[in-house]
Each structure stands twice: as C-alpha cells, then as structure tokens.
Design goal:
Largest sheet: 9 strands, mixed
Number of strands: 9
Structural class: alpha/beta
Helix content: 55-70%
Oligomer: single chain
Strand content: 5-15%
Number of domains: 2
CATH architecture of the largest domain: 3-Layer(aba) Sandwich
Length: 430
C-alpha cells in the first residue's frame, strides 16, 4: 500500500499490520503475481467486484497490496461479538447482513449501502465479494446484485463521473495449503456513467447488464472450469503445464502474471474440447498419473532431472547450517500454529486464513518476546536472532523445498522405467 494515502483509512490496525503482512505473505506463498495492480487507482471511487476462494486471504491481499485504502464487505454474523466487531472494523472490514445467516432486518443493509456511498464520496476503494460466498472450486459462481444497486444508488445521489466497478480475480493452485501460488488479476474498469442512460429508462435492465458484464469480466480473469465433473482432470492438466513452465524462485512478488494467462488458455481450450477427445484425454492422463503413483514418483521430478544436479547439491550443503538454524528457532511457532489450526478448522476455505492469523499473532509475540528479553537481559545475541528470524525462516522453507525437489529428481532419474513414463506423459500432452 502507498502510505501517502494512509490518512484516508479509518482502521488503525490496518495501517499497523500492512508491513507485517508483506513479510508473512512472502513466507506463506511460494509466488505472488499481481497483474495490473495499478488498475485500482488511489483517490478514485472504486467498487471492487471480486471472487472469493478463501476466507481472509483474499481481502488481506487487497488491503495490503493495493495503493488506496480498501474496505472489505464481510459476512455480518462474525460481527456479533463486540470485541470481534472492533477488531474487524480496525482492519477496514464492515458487515453485510444476509438472510441465510439469520438476519431479517432490511434496515441493516440500508446502513451498509449508506456506508459504501460515504466511502465512494471519500474516493477510496470498497471491495464486495460478488458471489456472496467463499469457495475453492475453480469456477465463478452466479453473482449477487448488491454491488450494482450500490453503484447505481451512489451515482443517482452524487453523480460521481469516475465511479467505477473494477473486477478482480483471485486465483490459487490449491487455496488451502501453505507455499501456494497466488495470482491476483485486476480487470478493466466498468464506468457507471456508461450504464446510466439505460438505468434511467429501465433500472432492472441496467442492473442485469452491469452484472452480466462483471460476470463476463470475472470469467476472463479467473480459473473457470465449465463442468464440475472435469475438475480432477483439469487439475492434472494444470499441474503438467506448471511443471513444463516452472516459475522463477525470485522475486517472490511479480507484477505480471504470464503463468496465469498460460493456465487460463489451457482451461479455455479444455472447456471447448469435444467430449470424445476429452474422454480419450482422461484415459491417458489417468494412466500416466497411476503409473507415477505406482512408481512413487512425481511429475516435476520426472521431467526435471536437472533438479538433482551437482550445483543444487552444493547449494543444499552450503545453506544447511542456516536452514537448520531457521528451522530450530521457528519450530515452537510452527508447532503451535499447525496444532491449533488442525484442531479448529472445519472448512478448507478457512485453513490458510487461520494459519496466517495464528502466524501473525503467535509469531508476533514470539518475535517481540525475544527482542524484549534480549534488551532487558542485555543479550545482544538474542536480539540478533530475533532480527534474523524472518529471513532465516524463509531460507529454511526454501531449503526444504529444494531438498524435496532434489530427492524427487534423483529418484526419478534412477528409475529403470523412466522412458516409459515419459512416453505416457507425451501421449497426454499430444
């Protein structure tokens, strides 16, 4: 976030946590792609129309990585307790009250609409998850019409000529695990003034047209598998494509998303494939992945024997002491975070959000505790360890990933039937 615009934010915790989140997300994710980040313009009335794969990972991306302060609409039932309400509001979140959550009073959402209009007048960004729920399926669900009603209601009262709806796609490889890849894609703005003549003649027609345009735009910047029955096959094809087009290790955050557009092109082609061709592809893919499983190998190791090269072995040996150091000093936090998450999380969509939240809170206390103890006891080495904690934690994570890649490639390279597996894979790709 550009701190020149920080004064527009009313959430004090939002401003404190933003730099922390930048560190945490670089540990939580292997790669982060932010395409057209500048499409969410500061000092502009923007309604973000986003899909919603995870519980809190998506909105925190917006609040931390987009320049203007972003206010996130959040389900109203988690605001019931006063303590949680104050905490969420300090993070620039505000409630929407849904009938399915037990709310029957329309007046509550009239207040929400008024809140959004006031934020538009202050020329900041408001994010609305337009599907109305979070889900990890790689498809865009039908949209709720609330965002269109807020947009037209605001334009009707205030005539903000630059009032715009900006679609944003949130895409993850899995969405419920650490060291994932995130692709946040900002689409083309839809200006409400362009729909206003239609709205004056027929409000319902204009609302439906805006919602159709938002949906069309979201489908172009999100994973969108047409048939749910094809999910497993599509995931396998995506994993093959990703291994054919490996991501750069550094930098962790990139501001273009070529990998997403390659994956998107693959899915678009897959969605239009005739059923007979899809059936043949399913058979070949199943044969290949079954053979991999029987051989106890993975696709990445099979096609990248260079991962088991001497230079990577030297790299592993050289960084082993630092990696061990990072692993040991981070072990208490890691153990406690995963223990709590596994016991408390019931839905996949919440898992990484809970891990992230626990990591910030427990890791923060751990870090501050080490600093304070080092200062009070005049132990400079303890202060040094605390300051090294984030970097050494990242090195230990990267070292472990490199070791696993090295072992997988080494095992695949020595597998006697490797050429047969490569032939099965080539049949899938053709």
């Amino acid at each position: 976030m550009d701190y020149r615009y920080a004064r527009h934010s009313t959430g004090w915790l939002y401003l404190i946590l933003t730099p922390v989140i930048h560190v945490v997300y670089r540990l939580l994710f292997r790669k982060i792609y932010l395409h057209n980040r500048s499409g969410i313009k500061p000092n502009t009335p923007v309604l973000i129309a986003a899909n919603h794969p995870t519980a809190f990972i998506d909105p925190i991306f917006f609040t931390s990585f987009f320049d203007p302060p972003v206010y996130n609409m959040t389900r109203g039932d988690i605001f019931r307790k006063p303590m949680f309400r104050k905490l969420l509001e300090s993070c620039n979140m505000f409630p929407v009250f849904r009938q399915r959550d037990g709310y029957q009073e329309r007046g509550r959402n009239d207040d929400v609409f008024e809140f959004c209009q006031q934020k538009m007048l202050k020329r900041v960004a408001v994010n609305i998850f337009v599907e109305g729920e979070h889900h990890l399926d790689k498809r865009v669900l039908p949209l709720q019409k609330g965002i269109a009603r807020i947009a037209f209601g605001t334009y009707d009262r205030h005539r903000l000529e630059d009032l715009q709806v900006v679609p944003v796609g949130c895409n993850y490889i899995a969405g419920d695990c650490t060291r994932d890849e995130a692709k946040i894609i900002v689409g083309t703005p839809l200006f409400i003034k362009d729909y206003w003549p239609t709205y004056e003649q027929n409000p319902n027609l204009a609302i439906n047209q805006l919602c159709r345009d938002i949906l069309k735009s979201l489908k172009s910047i999100c994973y969108d598998i047409k048939d749910k029955e094809d999910d497993a096959l599509a995931e396998q094809l995506l994993s093959l494509w990703r291994n054919d087009h490996p991501a750069r290790h550094l930098p962790v955050v990139e501001f273009q998303a070529p990998r997403f557009w390659g994956e998107k092109a693959l899915l678009d082609q897959f969605n239009t494939m005739p059923e007979n061709e899809k059936h043949l592809l399913r058979e070949r893919t199943s044969s290949y992945f079954s053979a991999l499983e029987n051989a106890k190998l993975n696709d990445e190791g099979l096609i990248h024997p260079e991962h088991a090269s001497l230079k990577w072995l030297v790299f592993l040996l050289f960084l082993a002491p630092i990696a061990l150091f990072g692993f040991l000093i981070g072990a208490p936090v890691r153990w406690l975070v995963y223990r709590i998450a596994r016991k408390t999380v019931k839905k996949r969509e919440f898992y990484t959000s809970v891990l992230m939240g626990l990591g910030v809170v427990i890791g923060g206390f751990y870090f501050i505790g080490m600093l304070v103890a080092g200062w009070l006891l005049n132990l400079s080495w303890l202060v040094t360890i605390a300051l090294m904690l984030p970097l050494s934690a990242w090195i230990s994570i990267y070292w472990k990933e490199t070791l696993l890649r090295w072992k997988a490639a080494q095992k695949a390279r020595n597998y006697p039937e490797r050429e047969n597996l490569l032939s099965l894979r080539e049949a899938v790709r053709n």
